[in-house]
Amino acid sequence: MATLKVPAHVPAPSEDAEQLHKAFAGWGTNEQLIIDILAHRNAAQRNVIRKVYSEAYGEDLLTSLDKELSSDFERAVMLFTLDPAERDAYLANEATKKFTSSNWVLMEIACTRSSHELFNVRKAYHARYKKSLEEDVAHHTTGDYRKLLVPLVSAFRYEGDDINQTLAKSEAKILRDKISDKCYNDEEVIRILTTRSKAQLNATLNHYNTAFGNAINKDLKADPNDDFLKLLRATIKCLTVPEKYFEKLLRQAINKLGTDEWALTRVVTTRAEVDMERIKEEYHRRNSVTLEKAIAGDTSGDYERMLLALIGAGDC
Amino acid sequence: MATLKVPAHVPAPSEDAEQLHKAFAGWGTNEQLIIDILAHRNAAQRNVIRKVYSEAYGEDLLTSLDKELSSDFERAVMLFTLDPAERDAYLANEATKKFTSSNWVLMEIACTRSSHELFNVRKAYHARYKKSLEEDVAHHTTGDYRKLLVPLVSAFRYEGDDINQTLAKSEAKILRDKISDKCYNDEEVIRILTTRSKAQLNATLNHYNTAFGNAINKDLKADPNDDFLKLLRATIKCLTVPEKYFEKLLRQAINKLGTDEWALTRVVTTRAEVDMERIKEEYHRRNSVTLEKAIAGDTSGDYERMLLALIGAGDC
Lengths: 316, 316
Prior knowledge:
Chains A, B: Ca(2+) 1 binds at residues 24, 26, 28, 68, 254, 256, 258, 296, 299, 304. Chains A, B: InterPro entries: Annexin, Annexin_repeat, Annexin_repeat_CS, Annexin_sf, AnnexinD_plant. The structure is a homodimer. The first copy, chain A, is 71% helix and 0% strand. Chain A is built from 20 helices and no strands. Chain A has helices at 13-24, 31-38, 43-57, 61-68, 71-81, 84-95, 103-112, 115-129, 133-140, 143-154, 165-180, 187-195, 198-212, 216-219, 227-240, 242-255, 261-271, 276-287, 291-298, 301-310. In chain A, helix 5 (71-81) packs parallel to helix 20.
């Protein structure tokens, strides 16, 4: 469930656009006004505001935001304002660049979005970068990472509930055999993780657990410092229990010496309209402190206010 | 250009449906009537006829066709009647089955359809088989074939004209180096062929030709009997000169001792609404005989009439 709070009576898009334009005008910027508007409109509403704004003032709203805002607050507002598919395309592109490359972000986008959402990301990627997502991922990765990530971002998984228990059993066995032989990058392991539907994969991993006495991710911890194994475990988490994956990401981002704003902003802006309620619940349970409290304790100013608004703290 | 001929005045779909129903009624079947209707309606029109037919007579038109027709004629009518995305999903599924498996058909569908068409095939595959295309392809292939085919069927290539000449040069060099080392299944070779846009790939292969003195497919003929090399060459042909690929397929299907109806029917039914005019031109040039003549000489009866109608012989 989403944490985004949209007021019962939403002003007309033209009014929102005008208010935003005012917030940028004159000396200083009215950050609170920006938060009050953008952090309380859903994706469809933000798209219309952007359209109306650019028609009225001859400039993309994102360009204006870029001129007026800075640092973490800017990134949070900018990312959230983007349409979800465009935002993911942006994050994925960033993740293939030399200095911001991140296999985790690519995996996260590929595994926690629905099949159609992921396809929309690929379309948005074409439109914005004049290239395909998979070609950039393939070009910027090598070895085992490429073997895993290219099929992950290219997948169009079946999303029905139909599962095949016989197949689940036989593929659980394949996974177990390959993992026992430490063949973590085996093409059969990659095939199963990258092509099966989430429901089918879940059945397979349940069989794994039942038949072999422990969860697959425990067996994948053989070498706790192996980065590829870490990514494999995260992939499995994203595909089966995404809220636990995001909780851990938030926990590590916040507990780090010097908050990891990059990750914090990404999780909050991408999940606020999806499953942030569930992630907050998970966070509270695991950390004995609410996510609101944790974020408030670790961030400040407009950035803090933006994040708290997105995770549904306070009214709108 | 398509060869499909649609009459200037098309009867109402309800009338077409009624005529088809009559064609099936009583003793014997009126095959010519079936050809006159179905081989002269475009995909959108056939879809409406199918819908109207099933509403009026409580049976899918394809089921009726299946009851009334047989052998090669049935396959041709059935394949052509299907919506293009559904038809490709059907052909692709067939190509992953034990006794009808064909890596070539999978490659052909992946490489000669546009990115959006291929995505529609993947959607149709979900709807019909409750699985994803790539999961069946991955499950039913192994080794080098899997390495090539899974990314091919999962691709969503960029389709704009933008190309990067620097990249074309550097990737031409990579291809040349790998081919010189006989590393035909190298992951870089696979990456370039499966992710780059057709325009970009074309630029790369032009550089290859210019810089190294001959076409890549000549270098890929090192071992003329190697099946994987054959498939690689066909992949490159499909991506760059599909009409030449289809011409050769037709030539081999027709010249074979005992026509290869399976291939002949596939090419005619899948290309009649796309680029059959171009393929016919290519065929005539290469064989010094028109495709009409070649098909007429090699097939007979309703099957012959159906194919000739689809390649635009005679009036409608």
